[in-house]
Amino acid sequence: MTDIEEPIRPRSIRSFVKRSGRITTGQIKAREAMGKDFLIDYAPQLLNMNEAFEGHIAPIVLEIGFGMGEATAAIAQTLNHLNFLCCEVHDPGVGALLKRVGEFNIKNIRIIQHDAVQVLEHMITPHSLEGVHIFFPDPWHKKKHNKRRLIQDPFIKSVVDKLKPGGYIHCATDWEAYAVQILEVLTQSPSLANTSEDPSGYATKPHYRPLTKFENRGLKLGHGVWDLVFKKKS
Q1: CA distance 31 to 54
Q2: Which range marks the domain in which residue 60 is found?
Q3: In terms of pTM, does the model score above 0.85?
Q4: Domain contains 113
Q5: pLDDT digit string (tens) for 111-139?
Q6: Residues 171-210 pLDDT 10s
Q7: Domain tally for the chain?
Q8: How far is CA 136 from the centre of its chain?
Q9: 14 is a domain residue
Q10: The domain spanning residue 163 has which CATH number?
Q11: Could you tell me which residues come within 8 angstroms of residue 177 by beta carbon, excluding any fewer than 6 positions away?
């Protein structure tokens, strides 16, 4: 009897790469103390933002993949007139951000521990977001893996659909080849306009995005960082 081969299915784009990591006692305690108020369960239905943020009505920014939450916490404090819906799949990162939320008494953050691609598709109302932040997404630097990168045409079309007219998308990467791809993808979207007046197309780092210790270390070693800020046309 001949074995029947399983059909090869294309790998779907995800907003994360699965990594192992040890969650600390402090992060576990933060999750226990803060989780009930700041964690939102993923569900394939539209999220009521007023309920999620307990009646604190403010424009919503979606943050995709916040790592350990250092920059996210700082941005939420700087832009405290906005609400931040933050997606991350890794336990240590979620615990670390919840710990910062407690330490700094941050009220304008909510966290969904789930793939942001699915959150964007199923939980976000069209034309509702003030902005989308995607900082240092995995570059999938091997050429054969480039197709796994998050920022590609179909994903950006989904982002644009969720942005308000005038809403923005802010990406940052420390991988030049990915910066080139992101610039190309965003420029090709007929619904987006580049806010940068620099001939390169790259933006000056906005004041609200802090330098993390890892980014600072890279800059000292001569590594570049590229910011891209595009707005949805009215």
Answers
A1: 19
A2: 25-232
A3: yes
A4: yes
A5: 999 999 999 999 999 999 999 999 999 88
A6: 999 999 999 999 999 999 999 999 999 999 999 999 999 9
A7: 1
A8: 9
A9: no
A10: 3.40.50.150
A11: 139, 141
